[in-house]
Amino acid sequence: MIDAAACIIDLYRRHAGAWATARGTVLLERAWIERFADMLRRGAAVLDIGCGSGEPIARYLATRGHPITGVDSSPEMIDLFRANLPGETVEVADMRSLKLDRRYGGLITWDSFFHLAPHDQRMMFPIFRDHAEPKAPLLFTSGPVFGEAIGTLGGEPLYHASLDPEEYRLLLDRNGFEVVAHVVQDADCGGRTVWLARQR
């Protein structure tokens, strides 16, 4: 499955348009995004890691008055983001080597972080820490248990992985985050396993 993990960026580059069309503009995860937004201080900047096209999550947060910095490893996704949210900041970057030299009032990596192999996921938590202001919320999706799974995008294999929930808790704690909410396979959010944490 590691081969599939190595193909993620190329896969999203080739299928960016089809992904954006399928994703649409309906905020299916509204309850979680609203809860995240409610934790942000007024006007706080948000770092959207694996931002995709910016629809609908980044757009929703922007309409609530939060400047967005979007990063994605697919230049094609970045082009879509720029077209959808021309007033926001966005750049091509691999989250695994992210170093923006600034901190944000909130971080979100929705349906993107879980495409990383387990080792790479572990390495992300110091990156989250280094980009988070005190009290900044962090919202991400994972799998329910340790393991790997293969979905599809454009008829091609799409890699997903997850650490064990207790390891996520340990990594969050070690990097200064406390868990605010964790729901396994949330039936109200398409069966996603969701984590909401806050920097101490």
UniProtKB/TrEMBL annotation:
A GO BP annotation: methylation
Annotated GO MF terms: methyltransferase activity
Residue intervals of the Methyltransferase domain: 46-131
Pfam families: Methyltransf_25 (PF13649)
Keyword Oxidoreductase: no
Domain of life: Bacteria
Keywords: Methyltransferase, Transferase
Protein name: SAM-dependent methyltransferase
Gene source species: Rhizobium paknamense
